[in-house]
Amino acid sequence: MQLKSKEEALTRIVELKQKAGFAVGMAGLQKQKARVALSLDASGSMIPLYEDGTVQQVCARLLAMAMQFDDNGAADAFLFDTSDKEVGEIFEKNFFEFTTNDLLKAFYKMRGGTSYADVIKRIVKKYTKTAGDPAYVLFVTDGDNSDKKQAEAAIIEASKYPIFWQFVGIGKSSFDFLEKLDNLKGRVVDNANFFSVNDINAITDQELYQRMLTEFPLWLKAAKEKGIY
Q: What is the pTM of this model?
């Protein structure tokens, strides 16, 4: 569903904020602070999902979650194909313009293959420059990557830092590698979770939030016990 006006987008975000707040409360995370990021696949196969409003809806859902955790109520946005870039912050006030203009302009300049490692490293660098709240990264992709060994090494290295990775596979592809990252050996602490959905627009907001928060509380506890944050 494409949000066609700023007013419609703001109404949707208000609705989502209530649902995200409920899910955060059910997970016992009402007082938890976190930096929030969205890492979006920008390979060519993602074109329909950008153009039909699916990516815009993903951004809205994550922004509502970010507003529960992040001090300034924003989500940092990253795009990746075989390259990667940070494309700015999504706020409630700039959401409609960002998702209908800035995000699409950046996406149309990419559309290559799919690599994970470099964007993982970029996000780690951003959130380890200075001390701060732990980070929650929603990593959305519709297909396989060409840099499996490098991505494994990047996630193992990232397990030293206060960053949790929620991988989401969208579409009908096989996501064997993301499942492997979810269960990867050699990490300081289990720093990732994975789930897939054929059609992310078909899953209810409440169910999506529940899935997004399934392992985050467990990671927070384990990371704290290890002195990671």
A: 0.96
